C-alpha cells in the first residue's frame, strides 16, 4: 500500500479536501486504484451532532456514517463509496483506546498518548486503507489521507506524531507528503510573499514530517523566482512545487495538477514511476469536456434555496453539487438565490421590511424552489410559505427531508383545511400530526440515532415524474438522515385530497416520495 498525506498550513479553508480529491483523480487516471481517509482532530465521535455553521454539512454515507463534507468530495471526484471508518476523529480514537483499557487489553500498562493513541491511529489507517471502496475485490493501490486543520493546532499533535512514526514505519517509497500552503499577494506591492509558507514548512519539519511536494494556493500562477525561493528555503525541488491558483470551476483543479506534472512527482516519490502498467499521462478527457462546457454556459436557470443556514453555503454542499451537475447536464448556467426562510415570514415585514421584500423578490423570480433538510422550528413558517407559493403558482418545487415534510404540512393546512396541521417536531401536542417521530428513534440520545444511510424506495406509480427522472426504474437506493416521517395513518386522507405518494419503503408504510396529482 502506498500513502499520500495531504496537510495544510498558514490558514484553514485553503481547499485541502479538493486538493486531496484531485490528487486521487490524477492518480486514478494513471491507472491506480484509490481510497481516501479524512482525519478530523475534533473530540466529537462523528459530525452528526454538529451545527452546519461549525463545519458545513453533515455528509451521509451508504452505511449510515455521518461524516465530514470532504468525504463527499472524495466520493464525487473518485466515484467510490466510503465507510464511516474512512473518517477518523479524535473522539473515535480515544473511545477505542479507552474501551480497550476497560477490557484490560493493555495488561496493566499506563495508557498514554504515546504509544497507545499514536499506535491506534496508525492501526486504524492501515486497517481502513485495505477496505475496497471502488466495487472491485482487493485493496486499493494508493490511500490518500487528508489531515484536517492547520499545522500547529494543538488538537492535531497526536496525529502529527502518529503520521511521523507511520512514514518511518512504511519506509521511503511508500509515503508521500503534500503540503498545501498559502502564497498571498499583498495589494500594496503586488508581490507573491513566500514567508508564510516558509514558516509553515519549518513548523512541519520541526514536528517530524518533511514535505515532498508543495501545493501553493494563490490568486495567480507562481512566478519562477518565487518557486526557486520556496525550493531553496523549504528544501523541496522546484519541479515538486505546484500552484493551485484561482480557476473558473472546480473541475479544472485536476487539470492544473496534470499540466504541472504533479502526478509525475508523486509517482516518483512512491517509486511507481517505472511501473509499466501505470500511464505516464493521466486520461482526463471527461474532466476537460465538463470544465469546457461549464465555462461556455450562457442561458441561466435560477433556483431559490430556502433554508435556515443560508449564511454558509457549505451547509448545503451536496445539494449545491447535485444542482450544479444537473444544470451542466442540461446546459444551463446555475444561479442559486439564497433565501433565508425567516425573511419570508410575516413578522419580518415589521422587523426588516427590506429583507422581507428582497426575499420574496428572489422567490418570485426563481425557475424552481428547493427546500433542503434542517432541524428545529426556526424559519419553518417561511418554508411553509415558500411551499404554498410554489403549489399555487405551479413553480417546480423540490423538498428534501424537512422540505418534503413541510410541503405535506402546507397541503394539509391550505388544501385540506386542517388549520392546526403540524409536525410533532414543532408542536408535540398538535391535534393533526401530519409528520410524526419515527418509532425506532431515540428521544434521549442524539448521536447516530436517526434513520441513516442507504435505503430502498419503491415507486408505486410507474409513470410518475420521479420514476421518469431516475430512468423509469422500479426502485432507487438513496441516502437518508431523519427522525420524523409522514404519518402513515393520514396517508389515505392525503391521497383522497389529491396528494399522491408515489414512492414508499419496502414495508409500504413509510412515505419516501410524494407528488401532487395532476403534476405527474
Could you characterize the architecture of this molecule?
The protein has 520 residues and is an alpha/beta fold. The chain contains 18 helices and 20 strands. The strands form five sheets. Strands 5-2-6-1-7-8-9 form a seven-stranded parallel sheet, sandwiched between helices. Helix 1 (16-29) packs parallel to helix 3 (70-78), helix 1 (16-29) packs across helix 9 and helix 5 (113-129) packs across helix 6. The N and C termini lie far apart (51 Å). Mean pLDDT is 91; it is low at 516-520. Residues 2-272 form the CTP synthase N-terminal domain. Belongs to the CTP synthase family. Catalyzes the ATP-dependent amination of UTP to CTP with either L-glutamine or ammonia as the source of nitrogen.
Kindly report the spatial arrangement of strands forming the biggest sheet: 5-2-6-1-7-8-9
Biggest beta-sheet profile = 7 strands, parallel
Query: What does the overall shape look like?
Result: globular
How many strands appear in the DSSP assignment? 20
Average the pLDDT over all residues and give the rounded result: 91
Number of helices: 18
Q: Measured on Cα atoms, how large is the radius of gyration?
A: 25 Å
Structural class: alpha/beta
Strand content: 15-25%
Oligomeric nature of the chains: single chain
Q: Unreliable runs, pLDDT <50, ≥5 residues? A: 516-520
Kindly state the percentage of residues in helix: 25-40%
Pathway: Pyrimidine metabolism; CTP biosynthesis via de novo pathway; CTP from UDP: step 2/2
Enzyme class: ligase
Protein name: CTP synthase
Domain Glutamine amidotransferase: 313-513
Amino acid at each position: 500500500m502506498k500513502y499520500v498525506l495531504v496537510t495544510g498550513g498558514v490558514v484553514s479553508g485553503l481547499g485541502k479536501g479538493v486538493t486531496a480529491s484531485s490528487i486521487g483523480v490524477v492518480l486514478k487516471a494513471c491507472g491506480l486504484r484509490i481510497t481516501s481517509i479524512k482525519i478530523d482532530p475534533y473530540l466529537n465521535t462523528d459530525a452528526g451532532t454538529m451545527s452546519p455553521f461549525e463545519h458545513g454539512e453533515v455528509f451521509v454515507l451508504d452505511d449510515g456514517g455521518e461524516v465530514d463534507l470532504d468525504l463527499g468530495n472524495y466520493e464525487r471526484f473518485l466515484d467510490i463509496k466510503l465507510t464511516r471508518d474512512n473518517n477518523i476523529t479524535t473522539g473515535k480514537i480515544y473511545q477505542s483506546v479507552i474501551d480497550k483499557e476497560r477490557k484490560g487489553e493493555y495488561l496493566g500498562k499506563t495508557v498514554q498518548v504515546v504509544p497507545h493513541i499514536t499506535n491506534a491511529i496508525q492501526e486504524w489507517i492501515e486497517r481502513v486503507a485495505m477496505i475496497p471502496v471502488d466495487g472491485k475485490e482487493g485493496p486499493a493501490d494508493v490511500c490518500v489521507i487528508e489531515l484536517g486543520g492547520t499545522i500547529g493546532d494543538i488538537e492535531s499533535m497526536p496525529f502529527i506524531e502518529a503520521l511521523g512514526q507511520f512514514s518511518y514505519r512504511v519506509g521511503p517509497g511508500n509515503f508521500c507528503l503534500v503540503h498545501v500552503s498559502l502564497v498571498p499577494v499583498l495589494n500594496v506591492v503586488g508581490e507573491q510573499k513566500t514567508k508564510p509558507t516558509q514558516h509553515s514548512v519549518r513548523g512541519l519539519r520541526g514536528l517530524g514530517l518533511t514535505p515532498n511536494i508543495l501545493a501553493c494556493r494563490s490568486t495567480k500562477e507562481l512566478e519562477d523566482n518565487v518557486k526557486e525561493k520556496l525550493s531553496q528555503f523549504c528544501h523541496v525541488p522546484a519541479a515538486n512545487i505546484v500552484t493551485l491558483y484561482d480557476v473558473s470551476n472546480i473541475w479544472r483543479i485536476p487539470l492544473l495538477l496534470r499540466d504541472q506534472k504533479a502526478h509525475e512527482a508523486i509517482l516518483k516519490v512512491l517509486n511507481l514511476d517505472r511501473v509499466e502498467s501505470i500511464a505516464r499521462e493521466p486520461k482526463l478527457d471527461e474532466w476537460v469536456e465538463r470544465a469546457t462546457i461549464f465555462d461556455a454556459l450562457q442561458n441561466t436557470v435560477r433556483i431559490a434555496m430556502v433554508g435556515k443556514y443560508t449564511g454558509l453555503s457549505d451547509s448545503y454542499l451536496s445539494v449545491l453539487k447535485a444542482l450544479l451537475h444537473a444544470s451542466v447536464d442540461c446546459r444551463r448556467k446555475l444561479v442559486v438565490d439564497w433565501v433565508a426562510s425567516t425573511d419570508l415570514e410575516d413578522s419580518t415585514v415589521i422587523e426588516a421590511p427590506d429583507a422581507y421584500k428582497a426575499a420574496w423578490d428572489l422567490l418570485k423570480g426563481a425557475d424552481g424552489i428547493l427546500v433542503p433538510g434542517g432541524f428545529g422550528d426556526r424559519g419553518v413558517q417561511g418554508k411553509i410559505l415558500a411551499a404554498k407559493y410554489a403549489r399555487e403558482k405551479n413553480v417546480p418545487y423540490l423538498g428534501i427531508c424537512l422540505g418534503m415534510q413541510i410541503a405535506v404540512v402546507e397541503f394539509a393546512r391550505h388544501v385540506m383545511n386542517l388549520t392546526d396541521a403540524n409536525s410533532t417536531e414543532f408542536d408535540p401536542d398538535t391535534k393533526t400530526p401530519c409528520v410524526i417521530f419515527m418509532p425506532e428513534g431515540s428521544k434521549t440520545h442524539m448521536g447516530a440515532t436517526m434513520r441513516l444511510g442507504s435505503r430502498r424506495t419503491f415507486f408505486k406509480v410507474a409513470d410518475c415524474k420521479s420514476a421518469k427522472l431516475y430512468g423509469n426504474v422500479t426502485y432507487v437506493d438513496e441516502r437518508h438522515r431523519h427522525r420524523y416521517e409522514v404519518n402513515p395513518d393520514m396517508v389515505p386522507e392525503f391521497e383522497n385530497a389529491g396528494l399522491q405518494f408515489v414512492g414508499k419503503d419496502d414495508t409500504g408504510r413509510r412515505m419516501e416520495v410524494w407528488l401532487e396529482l395532476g403534476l405527474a
